[in-house]
Amino acid sequence: MIVRRPAVRAASALAACVTVLLAAGCSSGGGGAPATGASTSVSPSPGRSADRSDVPPAKGSVTVVRTVTEGLKSPWGLAPLPDGSGLLVSSRDEGTITRVDTRTGKKTEVGAVPGVAAAGEGGLLGLALSPSYASDHMVYAYFTTASDNRVARMLYDPRKPAGEQLGAPDTVFKGIPKGVIHNGGRIAFGPDGLLYVGTGETHRGRFAQDKKSTGGKILRLTPDGQPAPGNPFGDSSPVYSYGHRNVEGLAWDKDKRLWASEFGQDTWDELNLIVPGGDYGWPVVEGKAGKAGYRDPVAQWRPADASPSGIAYAKGSVWMAALRGRRLWRVPLDGRKVAHAPQAFLTGRYGRLRTVVAAGGDRLWLTTSETDTRGTPRKGDDRLLELRVS
Fold it and tell me: Where in the numbering of this chain does the Glucose/Sorbosone dehydrogenase domain appear (predicted)?
């Protein structure tokens, strides 16, 4: 029987070093630390060579270019505006969306999303811009209500006064199970123009294996919220993959492969390569089990070193923001596999890290998450950072 981890994991004085297929040293340093607590599949994909020019080097780097702004409250979703002038940031607990000017750091409240019922890990979570944003100016949001988790879209009109720039929500998908914990919440439009939705099993593991439930899944929808044509369980099912515990990170690599981060329980947090119809094992297995019928993660971490939320793809690597781990992980890829040992950066420097988004080229946007009730806020928290990575 699997014993579920409580909402707040017990702190560990020293994370264990794990050696699985790879010797990984221990380090308490903040930048470029070896893969403490991480286990990866590091052998190159068939037909690939580890010295190919498109495989990232073993060692990367992270430079904090600047703090863009401070004083954000429980930031969660992050959506860059296409003209590069700003970012939309959701506040989980306040149910508001704020525009941050990326040049000056000025914050302007766009508006509040009606119906948000913030409690525990629920509230106003992921944001995404419509693939037709240039013509429709629609912002999509995943949020918790009194009865469920749902996705709605709203017109964003920056010409209106501050606080009144959001139109009324148009719910495109509802009925996702809600709970005090494990609400998922990451949404993103894929290269195919379809909406992908990461959900949680709300601490009820049976939902993850029930393909009729939308809890513990990655959903694939049209922009209007209908099950996407070609979904693996029929055109009437929104389910794209299942057997997930709590998905809070979605990103695509240069070859349009979908990656997802996932909270484990007491043993392993995961980075998964998502395939249509894949069963990722929860609650039957956690981490790499090698069990027939279940998809093993590509990389895994001890929860003290990870508890992953958002992920982004840049410079040939997946970058993963860690909450409990209080660090940014770099996972260099070689096709479908991990090319080299993951590296940890910014360890303990900014506290809990929630969302990371590609900003083009070698740049990332990163938000901290010290005001989410589980951190230890300092003056200036929470922050939006600009990073340069390699």
Answer: 72-373
Q: What is the pLDDT of residues 267-297, one digit of tens each?
A: 999 999 999 999 999 999 999 999 999 999 9
pLDDT in tens, 344-355: 999 999 999 999
Could you give the count of Cα atoms lying within 13 Å of 127 in the half-sphere of its Cβ?
29
Give the span between the Cα atoms of 29 and 41, in whole angstroms: 24
Cβ partners under 8 Å of residue 306, min gap 6: 37, 269, 320, 322, 324, 325, 329
- Please give the share of the chain, as a percent, with pLDDT higher than 90: 86
Question: Is there a contact between 90 and 75 (Cβ–Cβ < 8 Å)?
Answer: yes
Q: Where are the alpha helices (DSSP H) in the chain?
A: 133-136, 206-209
Place of tokens 């509802």: 174
Residues 6+ apart with CB under 8 A from 64: 346, 385, 386, 387
Could you please state the CATH topology (level 3) that the domain comprising 38-43+57-389 is classified under: Neuraminidase (2.120.10)
Q: Radius of gyration (Cα) for the chain, nearest Å?
A: 19
For 169, the token pair is 């929500």
33-85 pLDDT, tens per residue?
545 567 654 444 443 444 467 899 999 999 999 999 999 999 999 999 999 99
Find, among 117, 5, 58, the residue nearest to 317 by Cα.
58
Sign of CA dihedral 6, 126, 148, 234: negative
pLDDT at 32: 66
Beta strands (DSSP E) in 253-316 are 258-262, 269-274, 299-301, 308-314
pLDDT in tens, 131-142: 999 999 999 999
Cα–Cα nearest to 247, from 197, 290, 210: 197
Q: Which residues of the chain, if any, have pLDDT below 50? A: 1-30, 34, 41-51
Lookup result for tokens 């919440």: 185
Nearest to 101 by CA among 158, 47, 54, 140: 158
